[in-house]
Amino acid sequence: MIISVIHLLRQEKMLRGWNVEKTADCILGTTRLTAYLMSELKIKGEDLPAEHLHSVEINKTALKDWVYRVPQIPSLLHALVAMGLHLAKSEGQGEIFSSNLVLPLCVGIKFSGMYTVLDIPSVLYLKSNLPSENQSQWKLVFSSQFHGESFSRFSHQILQKGPTLLIVKDTFGYVFGGFASCSWELKPQFQGNSTCFLFTLSPNLGVFTYTGYNDHYMYLNQDQQTMPNGLGMGGQHNYFGLWIDSNYGSGHSKAKPRCTTYNSPQLSAREHFTIETMEVWLVGNFTESELSKTKSVLDADPEAQALLEMIGKTRVSDGLREPAEEEAEE
Fold first, then answer.
1. How confident is the model over 239-256, as a mean pLDDT?
2. Long-range contact list for 149-156, CB < 8 A, 24+ apart?
């Protein structure tokens, strides 16, 4: 069902700016999303191991509970039926199906040279776990592929931007991150609120929400001698559920057995990890003026731009511009 929906969205040019060729492996993402969805199928209120699905009878009550309780299921079924019957755009009866029910609008990527660590099934999964006001549009504001491996650049790109998704891929291929429900601020105190959460996308899908134990939702500090310098979510100083050190390239995910703030396990392959790729996406409803910003990383530095042109180098940051006409669809 997942692959069919993605195929139909692609065929109907309704991927909303996402590009299958420039995202992570869709097949692996589908496998992970399928495993998650099946893990949510409960028989008599109990979890059913995936390996036992073929040997048990699933009654209507269990299926009804599954459809109504797991938000991805009705979205996928709606998309499959509407597009399969060509009801996506019915002029006589109004819009029966819109792809924004499945995917957010992808803003700020001109996919000519861009590759994101997200796969489309993971985008669908994360979108359904976000507050409704943060689901409709995602805009890339930091990518280590383009902005470089600098904590100063990283913090500059995310400060005072609004709610964001932080995505980290470690050198063992684990993909994980956190949703920051408020704008990041540089200060030695914790910030944020109870709608923040941590998540993992690979090797498994999982979202870990606020426990009520403490209010250590978000932390961002730099150039302080007496406080930890870096970005953290959950846990406590020097023992975060997710930590990105200000000496860019390293971090930790400590949970023995669980993060106190989010009840998350260790997210990375190793407790102390090395970053392979990191991205930050602004998530929400953007104004026309925000969407029309086309400034490149190098536009603010004409000398750097001229130097690149002199040595015959192209500006890879152009991949982060918003195309004037070709952004909306694939």
1. 95
2. 149/248, 149/249, 149/275, 150/248, 151/222, 151/230, 151/244, 151/245, 151/246, 151/247, 151/248, 152/222, 154/244, 154/248, 154/278, 154/280, 155/184, 155/186, 155/220, 155/222, 155/231
